[in-house]
Amino acid sequence: MTLKTSQNVIMSENAITDYAAGKLSPAKHMLVACQSEISDQVSDRIAFQEGVAASLLEDGASEALSPLFMGNVLAALPEQGMGAALAPCDPAQGLAPKSLRHMLGHGLKDMKWKSLVPGVAVHDILGNRHTKDGDRLYLLKVKGGMKMPQHSHNGEEWTLILTGSYKTGERQFVRGDLHIEDETETHAPHIDEGEDCICLVMTQGPLKMQGWLPRAVQRVVGI
Amino acid sequence: MAFGMEPVIINIMSNDGVKPYNTGRKASPKSISAAKRDAQWLSAIAHKQDARALSDLFEIYGPKLKGWLMARGVGNGTAEDIVQDVMIKVWTKAASFDPVKASFATWVYRMTRNRWIDHQRKHGRMDVRDPELMKIIADDEVPSAEDNFMAQQNSDILKTQIARLTPPQQMAIRMAFMEYKTHKEISAETGLPLGTVKTRIRSAIQALKANMAKHVSHM
What interface predicted TM-score (ipTM) does this complex get? Predict the structure, then answer.
């Protein structure tokens, strides 16, 4: 397996527009940046729309820079070549997008997971999964073959699949797909047999579990 | 440019002699495209440490980028701080700019947008688990070679093609990129159902892509 996937990946055109326009929250922006590293098809779609945004810049409102701005910046220019180039992708670390590896300081193999229930583990990146105060970003690892409890959401849930795959209803999600659900949808992802499914997940509030057992478990473990 | 900064420029310029972009600057606006002019300035920055070229670029783009930020509610001081960060990044990374891959306008827009997202993360209510995240969000890679349909000559075609869209399509594109409003807010303001807002934006972009494909041979 390599970092890039040449498959057609699932990605909403509206999400690409919002990314290009700079309308996504930091957590969602990060998720789409990771997806664009995995899929050239997505990075091409983004580049097109960034080109549109950049050409519209010319028609937008101008705000004059303050009189001293240019002189101050020019007087303080650092030496060129100071922006060190980022290390090229390490093929051995293949599956984690570079943005994610930089953020974690390592690849997916060396993760320190926090186990929630047997077969399910998380690693928090931004925010707090237990509260309702905005977007949160975390990695979720679920053992192959497991069925997640039926749930819906308090807000949106964005899931980027990094390894493995799962089905929900008739739809299958594989590496590189970005699965977006809103508060109106209920689903119970069924992880395909075999490989662990590792996803980068953004949620906006605790999941709404269906059934008393998952709810009781949720109270104990969070999510 | 007339604000008492000439000595600074002269100091920096004094090692360089002739300004390499001079011919481009004197040319009539019709004889040279904005994208080509920008690429020449970038090359002067990268190869001749030409600070004058940097200030020329930001005389044009600085106010536009500041306007873009302030339209999103960013205060005057913060907007200038972000533009300053981007300007310094253009200076230090000019050598990695490849005009075949993207126009300067796209590159500088992407940097400014990413800096702004990063600013929101730092000053928002996010509970930051990892300060390293700042580096990533602010990381602005030059796009991959596959993006070359946005190459400099095509950014001019793109402008023409946006102008040729139907008025409702142009409005949809403007709503998507120019106004800092969510689809829900646009829907409330226009009275259009949310799904319709999303569909209009999507189909306007599809139309633009299709028109571009007709005019750009290698798409």
Answer: 0.83
